[in-house]
Design a protein that fits this description.
Length: about 450
C-alpha cells in the first residue's frame, strides 16, 4: 500500500492549538489559509542537541513552511561556551523558535516544549522527525532508538564516532525503513556536484587521484580552551548525561560544548569533523558510495599537546581503491589545496571545488557541456531535500549507508595514524586484515547503562 503524507502526519488542528497562547483570534496563516500550509499537513520536528549547529539547523528548518518545530532537547538549559563563546542551550533555541513563529503568524507563541532527556522526546507519538545535532559520541544510540520509534532522522555529520557505530546506525535505518539525511550538506552544492558529474562523466579521462585539503589544529571555537581546571558542574547542566556512553571524566569547561571535537572520547578532531565533508565528496566522485578503499597507507601525524585535547593537529594519509584511485586526506604537504577543497586529477585535466567556487585546469574544461545522462542526484537545499524525502519516502542526498562509508575513511585514517601502520581494509567485511589491534579500534566500549541500551537497539 502506498504511503501518503497523511499516513505519517497524524496531527490535526488540535496540535496547532497547543502552540497558541490563548488567542482570541486565530490568524488565517495558522489555519492554512492565504497560501500557508495547514497545521494538519505540517511535519512536526523535535531538535535534539541545542548547541551551535543545532541552532543553525533549526534556523534552516524554520524557513520550511512544511515544518513545525515543537520540541527542543538538550542537557544544557542555557549558557555561553558555544561558537565564539556565544550562548546556546535548549531555552535559547526554544525562545528563538517561538519568536520566529510569533513573527510569522502574528500571535504570541509559547508552544515549544523543552526536554533534558532525548528518550522522552522519542516517546512522543506526535513527533514525525528529529534533527540530531549532539556531539559525535551521542549519535548512535539516539539514531537507533529514533529509527525503532519510526521517526525520520536528520543527523549531523560526522555520522558516527566509530566504524562499528556507523554500521549499526545504517543497519537500523534500513531495518526500520525510516528516511535519513546526514548533514553533509556539500552534496547539495552546485560546485561539488558539477565537479563530481564532470569526473564521473569520463569527459576528462580516467580518474587517477583525489586530494582533500582539510583544516588542521584544535581551534578554540568555544573560547574555553584555557579553562582546563576541574570545577563543579554548573547548575542546569546535566554533565553525566552529556557524557552518556563516553568514559567517566571530570567537568572542565574546555571539555564540553563546541570544543568537544578535540577529544577522542567524543570525536576525531578535524580528521572526522571535516571528514564528513571533503572525503565524502571524494567518495561520490570515485563512485564508491556503497564501498570504500582497500588500503590506508603512509600515515603521518602530530597530536595535540593540550592538557585535555588529544586529537591530531597535523595529519596525512592515503586511501587506495581497488580501481587504483589514490585519495589523499591531509592538512599538510605540497599536494593539498589551500584554501581547503577537493581536487580530482584525471587523465585530461583536473577539476577543483570548494563551497564558494569551482575551477578546472585546463580552463577549457569549464566549457565542456554535460549531457542529461551525466547528471547525478540533484539537491540545492540540504534541509528541504530531507523534508521532500520525508514526504516522498525516496532516498535523500546523503543517506545513512553513504555517510557511513564516507566517514569510515576518516576513522581508518585516525587508526592508521594512532598505530603508525598501514592498514589493509576489507570494505565488504569491514575489517582490517591481519591486524587485531586495529580491529579493536573499530568500536569503543560504552559506559553503563548505555552499553546495554546500545545492544538492545542493534538489529
Amino acid at each position: 500500500m502506498k504511503t501518503t503524507r497523511r499516513d505519517f502526519i497524524k496531527k490535526g488542528s488540535a496540535a496547532m492549538g497547543a502552540m497558541i497562547a490563548v488567542p482570541t483570534i486565530i490568524p488565517a496563516s495558522a489555519l492554512g489559509k492565504n497560501g500557508f500550509i495547514a497545521p494538519s499537513d505540517r511535519i512536526t520536528m523535535a531538535v535534539i542537541g541545542a548547541g551551535n549547529q543545532g541552532g543553525n539547523d533549526t534556523r534552516a528548518f524554520l524557513q520550511d513552511e512544511r515544518v513545525q518545530i515543537t520540541a527542543i532537547c538538550d542537557v544544557n538549559k542555557k549558557s555561553d561556551g558555544y561558537w565564539d563563546g556565544k550562548v546556546a542551550g535548549r531555552e535559547f533555541i526554544m525562545e528563538m523558535v517561538d519568536q520566529s513563529y510569533q513573527e510569522r503568524f502574528g500571535k504570541k507563541y509559547k508552544g515549544t516544549v523543552g526536554y533534558e532527556d532525548f528518550r522522552e522526546v522519542l516517546q512522543r507519538k506526535d513527533i514525525d522527525v528529529i534533527e540530531l545535532a549532539t556531539p559525535d559520541h551521542w549519535h548512535a544510540i539516539p539514531v537507533m532508538m529514533a529509527a525503532a520509534a519510526k521517526k525520520d532522522i536528520y543527523c549531523q555529520k560526522p555520522m558516527s564516532l566509530t566504524v562499528q557505530e556507523g554500521r549499526d546506525m545504517s543497519n537500523a535505518v534500513k531495518h526500520h525503513n525510516v528516511v535519513f539525511q546526514t548533514g553533509s550538506q556539500q552534496r547539495s552544492s552546485e560546485h561539488f556536484r558539477w565537479a563530481v558529474e564532470m569526473v564521473r562523466s569520463g569527459k576528462i579521462g580516467k580518474l587517477k587521484k583525489v586530494t582533500c585539503g582539510l583544516p588542521g589544529g584544535t581551534p578554540d571555537f568555544g573560547k574555553t580552551a584555557h579553562l582546563t581546571e576541574i570545577k563543579p558542574v554548573p547548575k542546569d547542566f546535566n554533565f553525566d548525561m552529556w557524557l552518556g556512553p563516553a568514559p567517566e571524566a571530570p567537568y572542565q569547561p574546555c571539555r564540553t560544548h563546541v570544543n568537544y571535537r578535540w577529544i577522542l572520547d567524543y570525536s576525531g578532531g578535524m580528521v572526522t569533523d571535516w571528514g564528513g565533508h571533503h572525503p565524502d565528496i571524494a567518495q561520490w566522485g570515485i563512485g564508491a558510495d556503497d564501498s570504500g578503499p582497500i588500503r590506508i597507507q603512509n600515515p603521518k601525524s602530530k597530536w595535540s599537546d593540550h592538557p585535555v585535547y588529544n586529537t591530531a593537529t597535523e595529519f596525512y594519509f592515503e586511501a587506495i581503491y581497488e580501481n587504483g584511485v589514490e585519495l589523499i586526506v591531509s592538512n599538510i604537504g605540497k599536494d593539498i589545496d589551500i584554501p581547503s577543497g577537493v581536487r580530482f586529477h584525471c587523465e585530461a585535466g583536473t577539476v577543483w571545488a570548494s563551497r564558494e567556487q569551482h575551477h578546472a585546469d585546463p580552463v577549457s574544461v569549464l566549457d565542456i557541456k554535460l549531457e542529461e545522462k551525466d547528471r547525478l542526484y540533484t539537491s540545492n537545499n540540504h534541509y528541504r531535500n530531507f523534508i521532500d524525502c520525508v514526504i516522498s519516502r525516496k532516498p535523500t542526498a546523503a543517506p545513512a549507508e553513504t555517510a557511513h562509508r564516507s566517514i569510515t575513511i576518516s576513522h581508518l585514517g585516525n587508526i592508521a595514524m594512532m598505530l603508525n601502520q598501514d592498514l589493509e581494509w576489507d570494505p565488504v567485511k569491514e575489517k582490517v586484515k591481519d591486524n587485531f589491534l586495529a580491529n579493536q579500534l573499530l568500536s569503543r566500549q560504552m559506559r553503563e547503562p548505555w552499553d546495554k541500551v546500545y545492544l538492545k537497539y542493534r538489529v
